[in-house]
Amino acid sequence: xxxxxxxxxxxxxxxxxxxxxxxxxxxxxxxxxxxxxxxxxxxxxxxxxxxxxxxxxxxxxxxxxxxxxxxxxxxxxxxxxxxxxxxxxxxxxxxxxxxxxxxxxxxxxxxxxxxxxxxxxxxxxxxxxxxxxxxxxxxxxxxxxxxxxxxxxxxxxxxxxxxxxxxxxxxxxxxxxxxxxxxxxxxxxxxxxxxxxxxxxxxxxxxxxxxxxxxxxxxxxxxx
Length: 224
Known about the structure:
The protein is an alpha/beta fold and 224 residues long. Helices cover 52% and strands 12% of the residues. It contains nine helices and seven strands; from the N terminus they run H-H-E-H-H-E-H-E-H-H-E-H-E-E-E-H.
């Protein structure tokens, strides 16, 4: 009987210890779950709820644009950030009418990296890009469209740079043929054939220094 009592006590202690350990581990975890489609819709609904003006300067693009604190960096409330993380050229096409309906003064377009990183070929990405430009011209002909090259990548992502370079060359030729302003923001960010590590924290997204560099490259166009 004494042995049974001791055994039950040991089991009880182990069970309590296991439960306590699990509880401690669980309490230290931060679990983030979300439906990206729902999140993107919420972002769009918020953006589309704001008043639109023909004096607006729109920065349109993916996560790098979304992370750009443009109003603080340019001290200009006319500048509107319309970047959404994860956006591809197809995503921009789907939501473009919400931008063009306001007939903004300027649109700075930065898009294409997510397509290329998802193994879409350069020409498919470029064809969607040209559709974006055509739609802007058709729906908001007075808007000044400014094309930005895709930024380089670094580290584990540097393998994308060959495709990025090919894509950027097509963008530049398109701008020349269609009399559009092309800003090469790729080259100033390069060091040793990939993005300068001081400008990125993960090989793609930008540090504060990276955003200040980007600001420097856009400033003369925005202040015209």
